């Protein structure tokens, strides 16, 4: 009798599963889904989608699919049925309806390594609370009075270490700059100290796991990263205990004094801010150096702008530190930053899912489906940007100056309620680093290298650059200029 009951129960489950399957298939047949290809069973099209390609392009997968299906198409990516959007209007619609029609939905492996309380994976009220903490510590007044000085200090520490007539790996140097800045900003860690260097070493291992396949077996990058994550969290916990005994004016101290977050929540917040504040900005700075070395006209325009700031400061006898007013005068620098973020696309796509059935431009987006707004495809869309694969900072000048780029289509920091909390700090870091770079150095690509999307953007060789100090430049030490994008 027991065996008969078990068989009946199993048959009932199978029957119910078949009913649900056919009901779902019937529902999908009634829907007007975008065209597309679901790829192989289980795998879908994830492998070709993630195949590395030059970061200043959309990649073969997107090119072929957009050509065949249009800017909105269906696929099966990251183990889920997916609507992929290369459409500027749909991307804005998705980001503006965060929490209403769509919700952040990153793969489980990302949450496993960044932590369940990471701002990247949190949704709803908890995400709003975490984001509010970050915004409260990154107010405009704090950027003006405190962070500008910190940013300039760390930029000068890195740049002053560059010898004349040497080759430096620009991406590694940019990472050194952004990591040391965030380590001091978050936990008052001084650059070069043993504890800072130990944390940096663990963080490098951690980052390799974030961008690797989530195979949690001994010896894999993901497995090593989880071990480094544990070490980093213990380090943060020690710093939390120190803050209880003495108050420091860093983010960790501020959070302990002004929030009700648990220990685990604070640890994941600090770890995710280290990730967001270090990795993306350092890649953006490396991209700017790469694109500028190929565009001498833009470098000269930058030098004119920054020499004027420097000369005015010298004439008036002002403090040598940059002021906020001087930062706001860096108008062409902001054009370079916008163009670098548009063409380089540090953040290429976002993970969302539909909370309800949504209809857009006649297409149905079923509830529960993954939605992938591909930011890079909009930034490189020739119908939106003239010659989008060319590095042209002038496109961002005001309309009176001949600029033609539609600013509403530039979304390097996302948009809507999840707009990156550190966007203004990132632009400040880039501008200050560029200021001292163009004033003090000439730079050229020392070896062939370019940015690739893996999907995280990276320079395979670390971007080797030949640098010469401006006051020591001579024809004999200056290599031929590499051909660039403009």
From TrEMBL:
Top-level taxonomic group: Eukaryota
Catalytic activity: cholesterol + reduced [NADPH--hemoprotein reductase] + O2 = (22S)-22-hydroxycholesterol + oxidized [NADPH--hemoprotein reductase] + H2O + H(+)
Pfam families associated with the record: p450
Cell compartments where the protein resides: Membrane
Ranges that cross the membrane: 6-23
Entry-linked PROSITE patterns: CYTOCHROME_P450
Cofactor(s) essential for the protein: heme
InterPro entries in UniProt: Cyt_P450, Cyt_P450_CS, Cyt_P450_E_grp-I, Cyt_P450_sf
Membrane-topology annotation of the record: Single-pass membrane protein
Family, similarity comment: Belongs to the cytochrome P450 family.
GO biological process, one term: brassinosteroid homeostasis
Name of the protein described by the UniProt record: Cytochrome P450 superfamily protein
Keywords of the record: Brassinosteroid biosynthesis, Heme, Iron, Lipid biosynthesis, Lipid metabolism, Membrane, Metal-binding, Monooxygenase, Oxidoreductase, Steroid biosynthesis, Transmembrane, Transmembrane helix
Keyword Lipid biosynthesis on entry: yes
Keyword Metal-binding applies: yes
Major subcellular site: membrane
One cellular component term from this protein's GO annotations in UniProt: membrane
Binding, heme: 420
GO molecular function, one term: iron ion binding
């Amino acid at each position: 009798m027991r065996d008969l009951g078990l068989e009946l129960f199993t048959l009932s489950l199978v029957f119910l599963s078949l009913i649900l399957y056919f009901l779902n298939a019937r529902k999908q047949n009634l829907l007007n889904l975008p065209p597309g290809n679901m790829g192989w069973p289980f795998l879908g099209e994830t492998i070709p989608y993630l195949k590395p390609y030059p970061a200043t392009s959309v990649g073969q997968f997107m090119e072929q699919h957009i050509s065949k299906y249009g800017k909105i198409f269906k696929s099966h990516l990251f183990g889920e049925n997916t609507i992929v959007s290369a459409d500027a209007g749909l991307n804005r619609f998705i980001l503006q309806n965060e929490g209403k029609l769509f919700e952040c939905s990153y793969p489980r492996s990302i949450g496993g390594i960044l932590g369940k309380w990471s701002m990247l994976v949190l949704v709803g009220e908890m995400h709003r609370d975490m984001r509010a903490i970050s915004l409260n510590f990154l107010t405009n007044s704090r950027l003006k009075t405190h962070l500008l000085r910190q940013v300039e200090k760390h930029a000068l520490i890195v740049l002053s270490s560059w010898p004349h007539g040497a080759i430096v790996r620009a991406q590694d140097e940019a990472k050194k700059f952004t990591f040391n800045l965030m380590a001091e900003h978050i936990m008052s860690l001084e650059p070069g100290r043993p504890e800072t260097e130990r944390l940096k070493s663990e963080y490098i291992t951690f980052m390799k796991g974030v961008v690797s396949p989530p195979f949690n077996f001994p010896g894999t990058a993901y497995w090593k990263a989880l071990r480094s994550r544990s070490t980093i969290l213990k380090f943060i916990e020690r710093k939390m205990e120190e803050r209880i005994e003495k108050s420091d004016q860093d983010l960790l101290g501020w959070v302990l004094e002004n929030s009700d977050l648990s220990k685990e929540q604070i640890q994941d917040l600090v770890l995710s801010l280290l990730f967001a504040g270090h990795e993306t900005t350092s890649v953006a700075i490396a991209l700017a150096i790469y694109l500028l070395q190929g565009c001498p006209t833009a470098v000269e325009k930058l030098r004119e702008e920054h020499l004027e700031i420097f000369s005015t400061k010298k004439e008036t006898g002002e403090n040598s530190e940059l002021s906020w007013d001087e930062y706001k005068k860096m108008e062409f620098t902001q054009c370079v930053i916008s163009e670098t973020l548009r063409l380089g696309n540090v953040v290429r796509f976002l993970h969302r899912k539909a909370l309800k059935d949504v209809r857009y431009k006649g297409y149905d987006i079923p509830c529960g489906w993954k939605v992938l707004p591909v930011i890079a495809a909009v930034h490189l869309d020739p119908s939106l940007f003239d010659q989008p694969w060319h590095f042209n900072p002038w496109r961002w000048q005001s309309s009176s100056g001949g600029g033609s780029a539609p600013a509403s289509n530039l979304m390097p920091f996302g948009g809507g309620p999840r707009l990156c909390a550190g966007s203004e700090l990132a632009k400040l870091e880039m501008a200050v680093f560029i200021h001292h770079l163009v004033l003090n150095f000439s730079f050229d690509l020392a070896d062939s290298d370019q940015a690739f999307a893996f999907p995280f953007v990276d320079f395979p060789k670390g971007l080797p650059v030949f640098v010469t100090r401006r006051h020591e430049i001579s024809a004999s030490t200056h290599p031929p200029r590499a051909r660039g994008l403009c």
